[in-house]
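User: My instructor asked us to take a sequence, write out its structure as tokens, and then describe one feature of it. I'm not sure where to start. Here is the sequence I was given:
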Amino acid sequence: MTTVTFDTLKFANRLKAAGVPEKQAEAEAEILAEALEVNAKNLATKEDLVMLEQRIVIKIGGVIFAATGILMAYMQVRS
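Assistant: Let's start with the prediction itself. The structure tokens for your sequence are:
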């Protein structure tokens, strides 16, 4: 599982330093942390990509095999 590290205190302190009211800065930091956590759950892992690559290779191999069979049948019909 993918984990995203987000320093809510640092983020809130930077907002406060920029003039954002304390309560608003803290709320924004919490909301952003929640959004990052939810989005991180949907990220693809290396394992996901490897599985996808294998599926693509198998499907392309099947298409090439079928196309070769069709071409061979066509060549036999023509001769």
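For the description part of your assignment, you could build on this observation: The mean pLDDT is 91. Try explaining in your own words what that tells you about the chain.
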